[in-house]
């Protein structure tokens, strides 16, 4: 693995939110590498059960990362809003994103 990603300060997410999300995604990445190994080593039909179970776990972990991204965005974007209208607009945008991708 290469060097860690540089976390850039910005308005999208806090540095801690980014760090938490990146850590979660690194765990998902590890799960996917494990799934790849299980597939490569699969020998008996029952091995497919283990692969399916690990794929489901990785999918759930990735879904959880998506929820974490949205909740962090809601907190950050509405918290940084200059006024109520800006907060409403940010919340509406995030709700639309949730509806589109979830």
TrEMBL record:
Q: Which family does it belong to?
A: Belongs to the FrmR/RcnR family.
GO molecular function annotation: DNA binding; metal ion binding
Domain of life assignment: Bacteria
Q: What biological-process terms (Gene Ontology) are attached? A: negative regulation of DNA-templated transcription
Organism the protein comes from:
Massilia cellulosiltytica
Q: What is this protein called?
A: Metal-sensing transcriptional repressor
| Membrane spanning stretches | none
């Amino acid at each position: 693995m290469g060097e860690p990603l540089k976390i850039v300060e910005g308005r999208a997410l806090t540095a801690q939110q980014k760090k938490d999300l990146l850590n979660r995604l690194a765990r998902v990445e590890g799960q996917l590498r494990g799934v790849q190994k299980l597939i490569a080593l699969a020998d008996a039909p029952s091995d497919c059960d283990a692969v399916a179970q690990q794929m489901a776990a990785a999918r759930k972990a990735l879904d959880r990362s998506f929820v974490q991204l949205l909740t962090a965005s809601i907190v950050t974007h509405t918290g940084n809003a200059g006024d109520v209208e800006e907060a409403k607009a940010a919340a509406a945008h995030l709700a639309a994103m949730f509806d589109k991708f979830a």
